[in-house]
Amino acid sequence: MIVWRSLNLGIPLLAFAMLDLHVSCPEDQFLLPNRICCHFCPEGRFVTENCTRNQEKNTVTGVKCSRCTVCANGTQIAPCTTFNDTQCAVKKEITNISAEELLYVIMPVVCIMIIAAVGYKWCSRRREEPLKMMI
């Protein structure tokens, strides 16, 4: 009798759970966690925003799709998929730097190196000859 009672309570719960879990969509649609079937984007596009259900109006808004990016010079890292855009590698281009721009970059470095060299030389002389002053 004890075995029968435990089975008697479990069977209706199991049957109810099995009926509630099985939701499927047509082949041209995908299922969201909130049990809405959304259409896939056409070829060459990817989903940027899933469809949603308006509870008050009992309507479903469609998915929003964007065109897949075409990488320049075949620098594709990953292809466009249903939910992700194409991933492209970024090539850094070397630009021509004018002499004036180069001067603004190099001059501070050169000045710091000169100051460091003079300071090093002055400190090393003081260690060797502590009574002489550098003029």
From TrEMBL:
Instruction: Kindly list the residue ranges recorded as spanning the membrane.
Output: 102-123
Residue ranges annotated for the TNFR-Cys domain, each copy included: 40-88
Q: Where are the TNFR-Cys repeats?
A: 40-88
* Signal peptide per UniProt: 1-17
Q: Which InterPro entries match?
A: TNFR/NGFR_Cys_rich_reg
For this UniProt record, give its keywords in alphabetical order, as a comma-separated list. Answer: Membrane, Signal, Transmembrane, Transmembrane helix
Protein known as: TNFR-Cys domain-containing protein
Source species: Tachysurus vachellii (Darkbarbel catfish)
